[in-house]
Design a protein that fits this description.
The protein has 232 residues and is α/β, with parallel strands linked by helices. 37% of the residues lie in helices and 23% in strands. The protein contains nine helices and eleven strands. Helix 2 runs parallel beside helix 3.
């Protein structure tokens, strides 16, 4: 059994923790991002909707009544959120925003499409910019805002100090960066020597610069592949 620190926002962290505990691990929580919805104008009905995160789906689709509206989801987990909200016309991508672009371009050629990317205020890979460079009409619609949380709770800080945490999970480049910034602000780089970092993708692991005990990334950018690292 490992004691694993989860850095995801609260809305995502608890389901992940429940899965880890079913696997026999102990979950500890230190969300590096706070997420709040923002007001936005619903994109024109002529635009197909692009979702690259579950939060984009959760907050972006909440007030859209046209359940058959075309949606392109980055991967199966994001698509599942849209389905649970009643949407039926969903095309599922290969798992990353970068790899979703060829699918959007292909569908844009087959049926003339304009796109609206339902996203947060921080975008790691700007799909709309890439599509516009290819002559496709695409816009970003910000549906939620993320802010960094660089503070550890006293309980988490104490567990890190005592070496009671074995590993940290990272699902995004930004959370990886914020975590190391939080470590730096606490002046406790020695904590990293006791920790293994498990990352969703090579892009995420490339953000980690500190003296970790080990840094590994999943073969595929899925939670299932990430959890396989824990079994290995």
């Amino acid at each position: 059994m490992k004691t694993i620190l989860i850095t995801r926002p609260n809305t995502e962290a608890r389901p992940t923790g429940d899965k880890l505990e079913m696997m026999g691990h102990r979950a500890v929580y230190a969300p590096m991002l706070n997420i709040v919805p923002v007001s936005f104008e619903i994109p024109e009905e002529t635009r197909s909707l692009v979702l690259t995160s579950k939060n984009g789906a959760r907050f972006g689709l909440a007030n859209i009544n046209q359940k058959a509206r075309p949606i392109f989801a980055v991967g199966e987990q994001t698509a599942a959120v849209a389905r649970d909200m009643g949407f039926t016309n969903i095309t599922v991508g290969p798992g990353t925003a970068r790899k979703l672009v060829p699918l959007l371009l292909e569908c844009g050629d087959t049926v003339k499409r304009d796109y609206a990317h339902l996203c947060g205020n921080e975008i790691a890979y700007n799909i709309s910019d890439v599509l516009r460079d290819q002559g496709v009409d695409a816009v970003n619609t910000i549906t939620y805002q993320t802010t960094a949380n660089r503070n550890f709770s006293p309980a988490v800080a104490e567990a890190l100090e005592r070496g009671e945490i074995d590993a940290v999970l990272f699902y995004s480049p930004r959370t990886a960066t914020i975590f190391e910034e939080a470590i730096s602000e606490n002046g406790e780089h020695s904590w990293l020597n006791k920790l293994d970092a498990y990352c969703l993708s090579p892009r995420v692991s490339s953000e980690l610069l500190g003296p970790w005990r080990s840094v590994q990334h999943a073969v595929l950018p899925t939670e299932k592949a990430l959890f396989r690292l824990l079994k290995d």
